[in-house]
Amino acid sequence: MFNKPIVMLDFETTGLSPDFGARVTEVAAVRINGNKIVDRFVSLINCNVRIPGFITEITGITQQMVDAAPCPSIVMPRLMQFIGTDILAAHNACFDAKFLLSENRRLGLKPHSKDLLCSLMLSRRIFPGLSSYKLTNLSRSFGINFKSRAHRAEADAEVAANLLIHIGQHVRTSYNLMSFDPHIFNEINKISAAKVTRFLQNKFVANAKDSPE
Predict the structure, then answer these.
(1) Residue numbers of the domain that contains 125
(2) How far from chain centre, in Å, is Cα 90?
């Protein structure tokens, strides 16, 4: 379906923004190849920070768990090696992107991937009119089950990856495609939901007409 690999990323953190001192506690990255998940990278991270009680209530991640985890200087290079040059995606990507850049900046690392897809924005454009675009609500809407507790990095990354696969299958079947370049999702995210159908019709119908028989 997708003609290029995509890595879906999810961080669990101590707060909403690294600008206010929040750090990462856990990361998961799952690779999509075609129409299925084929590989994954998962790790708790010890940033030597206190885990607020409300974060433990939400995620189940305790101070003891992160105190025993590897530090960012071990985890982040391995994460970047896992991602490589593949297209990167996240649900509410601006959140995860801030933490990815912040932790990499501390270590002098630079991502090799130049692309970042947002499955939250994409869901709003492909499936307008839903009551909520939170990952837990979208998973219920499309019958995508969490295999473990929500708000843990691996569970969230896996559900978000399956959501992206669901979106890709919807586009593929709607326009009778064998496969397509997932970069088109970034183009979709730049336009309003009302213009998406016409945009895809123009994109794929025009390409079909130009293809040799």
Answers:
(1) 6-210
(2) 2
104-121 exposure pattern, b = at least 16 Cβ within 10 A, e = fewer: beeeebebebebbbbbbb
Give CA–CA dist 29/82, Å, rounded.
Answer: 8
φ, ψ dihedrals at 64, nearest 5°: -60, -40
In a domain? residue 1: no
Indicate whether 94 belongs to any domain. Answer: yes
What's the rounded Cα separation, in Å, for the pair 29 and 43? 9
Q: Following DSSP, what letter does each residue of 190-208 receive, concatenated?
A: TS-GGGHHHHHHHHHHHHH
- The tens digit of pLDDT for each residue in 9-49 reads 999 999 999 999 999 999 999 999 999 999 999 999 999 99
Q: pTM here?
A: 0.93
Phi, psi of 24 (to 5 degrees): -85, 145
As for how many domains the chain has, the answer is 1
